[in-house]
Amino acid sequence: MANKSADYDKVAKDLARREAELGELDVNLKKSRTQIDQLNADLKTREARLAELQQALAAKDKAVNDLRAKVNNALLGFKSNDLKVELRNGKVYVSLSEQLLFKSGSTKVDPKGQDALKKLAQVLQEQPDVNVVVEGHTDNVPITRGTAGMQDNWDLSVLRATEIARLLTVSGVAPQRVTASGRSQYLPVAPNDNAADKALNRRTEIILTPKLNELFQILDSNSAATTGGQ
Fold it and tell me: For 43-47, what is the mean pLDDT?
């Protein structure tokens, strides 16, 4: 009887231990299921954000391509060596030669150039969600110091950009959308070692960028969610 009692106690203890192990396994299993459910929910949330971001990017690409097509159509009557419309880095660049816009050393836009700017302004009035940056560029030939109150190519590039910005706003583009800047000789598109290449560098670029508020909001919310998740 004593031996049987001892065996019974041993079996009871073993059973109790196994029941405890099973209970612990059950708790761990429930935790794992909860974690898996949470991971699945997080994955669905991330997939939804990714889909939203892809949709916003596609809308932005479409807006840029549509803008380029409208600008191209508006400026079809101008020579390709005087005016180019290109897509670069998700922006529309309208590059206008010095020959189209200005006489040498002048900051006053010629009638032909004014016509091009008026046509561009008409497109921009129909595109209120587009920001406009006007960049003046020169070659590396120093201007005669004191010409029309200018000291160097910085002055020439900035004053030309300002004049174009003024013409765009007079033609109906909201001034709040327009930024005038000058890059002087420091962003050439060709070497300044011959007359033809110098002429290419004497240009004004009007950079058109659709506002990306919606895209930035999505990026900010994704960034905040990722930080919070960490």
Answer: 89
